[in-house]
Amino acid sequence: MMDYNKMFGGDKDLSAILVIFGGTGDLTHRKLMPALYNMLLDGLVPEHFRVVSIGRRDKTEEEYKKEIHASVAKYSRNKVDESIWSKLNDMITYYRFDFREYDGYSMLKEYLEDIDKRAETKGNRIYYMAVAPEYFKTIVHGLHMANMAKTEGSWSRLVIEKPFGKDLNTASQLNHKLLEVFEEKDIYRIDHYLGKEMIQNIMVLRFSNSIFESIWNNKFIDNIQISLTEKLGVGTRGGYYENSGAMRDMIQNHIMQILSLVAMEPPVNLKTDSIRTEKLKVIEAIEDISPEFLRENVVFGQYGKGVIDGNPVVGYREEINVPEDSGTETFVALKLYINNFRWAGTPFYIRTGKRLGTYGAEIVIQFKDLPNILYFKDSNIQEPNLLVIRIQPNVGVFFQFNTKDFNSHHGIVPTKMDTSHVNPTQGNTPEAYERLIYDILRGDSTLFSRWDEVEAAWTIADKIIRYREQSNVKFPNYDAGSMGPIKAFELLAKEGRKWWNI
Prior knowledge:
alpha/beta, Rossmann fold, Dihydrodipicolinate Reductase, domain 2, 2 domains, eight-stranded mixed sheet, six-stranded parallel sheet, 18 strands, disordered N terminus
């Protein structure tokens, strides 16, 4: 265990109460509590820290803690050490409260203030919205009515899970309500993808290695591919997915954030706003998304029945709570251009979907070919240099280059250098929520979306969603277990390119 004072510099202002609205929900059990356990194991939780889980279910605190223990044992990246669990157990309380009833917020305030006195948490608060989006405004209004958002001499931070609105209009309305109660600097719009190790490593790879940054432009890069693929279907989330689709579920948030990190200019410094400003510039530089452009550069798909890992699965329209004639997309392939000096003319290909043949998330940077002279003028086939940033499930960096085939006189073969965080010598990588909760506690919002980033991403996504709603695409158009519709392959093939599956 690390020493608390050494880790936190003895600053008691980092003490806080984490108030989880939705304390009995799936997110709390699968992500938040296991993350807190591992943070405690790694010495990343200050001594004066408490967790208040709010739920509407009638259960005792003992029952709740037993359920949390079982979830930590099931989902934690580390085995449960009972001595560490005992510390977390003592930090957790369960507070039964229907957050839709405004009268109850004043009693919640008194309850938290009582914990402040006993646990020396200094009045600092993290309000985590682990609830359905329709309750965000309700809870924030309740906090406002009870004067729980701002207290002199302490800080309060609001954490919002996606989806942040359904379109630009609803996102703007929600943001307006939040800003009536919390300042922008205190709003943490969470995207768990940004907590992943390799997402954070993108900037390190680029800006700490001259060999990459010097050629990170349209003069040397042929194209960049971002693929987030899933084998799973929608399962029991059919009702949610019908109102979301792949565009809202993946493109507007996760992929836009990854795209901005890959393509951004070097920030003037590593301060939060400097990094966010460069990310915003990328999204604003995306070439105009017109219906004419989309007609040639976007592919929508919906999975039908098929086979995944040898097991037959149903199509999307046969899933629970999905209409038989659903027009919701479960797959999107898209080509974009970033219209600035660094990237003009370089295509960015995006692909995401459910019930595909592989599970993974990776970024492929394909460098331009050399002229077919010297070694490639005869029978040798030139394989392009590839830099692959693997986000999941294998976390690491992969680089492909050409070298002599030592089994022949003149042959040339692609050689691969691969580094991975699943290597036992690299240790056990933190889960995304551990990193993000730690940053919230420290007040570091670098890995969270600023409103103008969200606004710019919705501006792009809205245009594509409107085009999809007006298009007459015949669904389903790909089998479960495949890699998507045929047109997604044609999107690249017509320009002599292909999707890379490394």
